[in-house]
Design brief:
The structure is a homohexamer. Chain A is built from 2 helices and 4 strands, in the order E-H-E-E-E-H. With about 60 residues, chain A is α+β, with helices and mostly antiparallel strands. Chain A has a single domain, classed as Macrophage Migration Inhibitory Factor (2-Layer Sandwich), CATH 3.30.429. A two-stranded parallel sheet of chain A has the order 1-2. In chain A, strands 3-4 form a two-stranded antiparallel sheet. In chain A, strand 1, helix 1 and strand 2 form a beta-alpha-beta unit. Chains in contact: A-B, A-D, A-E, A-F, B-C, B-D, B-F, C-D, C-E, C-F, D-E, E-F. Strand 1 of chain B pairs antiparallel with strand 1 of chain C.
């Protein structure tokens, strides 16, 4: 604790995941004033057929 | 925002996912009075070996 | 299970909450083909100072 | 309801999952005084490349 | 990590919360084989007007 | 979507919340390459009697 959960699309590039975790952690350290080791980040990758925006699946928006 | 997260069993039929997103979004639009585009739905599919009900995994209930 | 979690703004009107739970449950019953009693809905109300959209707190957007 | 969600590393051994669900449910039954059948447990398995601790992905810590 | 989130009704008795955290943590330590200090438990208390079961708010079930 | 949820202790200072939302959003924009307006941040404040670390409530750790 604190924990940060990111619900987003799949991320292919491992370096993007590294950047995400590094920068989100740095922000949390600054705001909460807690040691870096206490910050946990969970990256949740959601397939486009499992996400709806505006009543439509992302997968259907992409095929338009 | 608003966001709707559904934790349920796997859904094989893509049309079921379409229906889920369409109807959940319609309900949220009516209740919150916000534009359709602001509503995000996340479908979370849980394998039967990762869900417990009444202290038992679903996978064990199904094999009885 | 299935569980539906709605993250949204505060809802003052109890009847809106009743409508939300009734309609989200009806949709889940239709899509999953499971008994009504298995569907749980959690309404999460978020204060406008705890929600950010586009990098800004909602509370700041409203005072513009 | 109540629902218990566990965000952890992957669990290979099905008996570990059985134990997790059985014991978490027993605890919830004792504390809430509700029937066993009302307790739902969701096990969420997170790949080591999707978890960050202290600003670093678990996958990078393991290769050190 | 691992993190355990419990979504349940309000808990008045602080000792019940202590018991919940102690026992859930003990179970996680046994199953994951990780040090006690890594286990985080979040207790989420939900007002009965914000929980629906079977299409009805808990608050309505209680007044029947 | 993407959505970022931060589970942490209460934050008294509104400017800290502003900073949290601004910086988390900036990171998400860079990593996902999506427009700022699509990023939603939810700040979840947890009372110290509702968080357990190492099997103990935070509230008990503070009174030691």
């Amino acid at each position: 604790m604190p924990n940060i959960i990111i619900e987003g699309p799949p991320i292919q590039d491992l370096n993007k995941k590294r950047q995400l975790v590094r920068e989100l952690t740095d922000t949390a350290v600054k705001v909460f004033g807690l040691p870096k080791e206490t910050i946990v980040v969970l990256i949740k990758e959601n397939a486009p057929e499992n996400v709806g925006v505006g009543g439509e699946l992302i997968i259907d928006r992409h095929t338009k």
